[in-house]
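Input chain follows. Return structure tokens only.
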Amino acid sequence: AAAHAAAQAKTLGITRYRRIPAVRVDGHCSPAAVAPFHVTFILREVLKNSVRSTMEGECPTAPISVRLKTDEGHLGVLISDEGGGVKPELMEDPECLWNFRQISSSKGVLLGGWGIGLPLSRIYARFYGGELSMSSIPGHGCSTILHIPCLDATRAAFVNM
């Protein structure tokens, strides 16, 4: 799911910017262990934001890091970028990022398209019993964390039909 989401984000980034920063994926998760469509959607939306903010930030060549870890029935994913972070006043309200609206980076660069990617991603994560959270260092970058339970065999067969 992570490699597929990274490839999709890269394609979108290249279409817009003609080049993109490296996206480094470390770790692996079996697609059968999670809801692949929804996890790919979540990772693609976060990676699109990371690509956009990195390319429009001060260091467009800074790599984006994706770390995956499956442990004790859960998938953990950490996506980190150096795209300038989110304005501090937007981070003061913890729910601000998750509302359906567009936000801008710490430098005022528009980060999103329609403002539905992150909120819908969080809804998907919570639907599967997980969580999507973000932290930001203004002027530096963001880290986004996805925790989601792996599916048992019965649910995996149903979801992956």
